[in-house]
Specification:
The protein has one domain. It is built from four helices and two strands. The longest helix has 19 residues.
Length: about 100
């Protein structure tokens, strides 16, 4: 039995979505998927209550059709937002394993 390459499988599905919609650029679809997977990991982490999502990405989640395409994510951090602490926090978040084909 051959093992499925999850990353390649996800990429192919996202490429199909891009081809079907014809209005979205593959890079934008890929970036949104990656940001959503980061949000998922943040939600599963011990830091889930430390961040608040804001900006265009939040609107994209509220409405079926986003007001504008976004390739970034705006977060409000609660607590100490020292650069080294934030770096350590996100290093822990991106290490959370999940079978979604995403490796940070």
């Amino acid at each position: 039995m051959t093992r499925i390459n999850m990353g390649e499988s996800v990429r192919a599905r996202l490429l199909n979505i891009t081809k079907q919609t014809k209005s979205l650029d593959f890079q934008i679809v890929l970036m949104r998927f990656m940001l959503e997977r980061l949000l998922y990991r943040m939600g599963q982490s011990n830091y889930s209550q430390q961040f608040l999502l804001k900006g265009a990405m939040l609107f994209a989640l509220w409405y079926n059709m986003p007001h504008r395409t976004t390739i970034d994510m705006d977060l409000l951090a609660f607590g100490d937002n020292d650069l080294l602490i934030m770096k350590k926090t996100f290093q822990e978040i991106v290490k959370i394993p999940f079978e979604d084909g995403v490796l940070f």
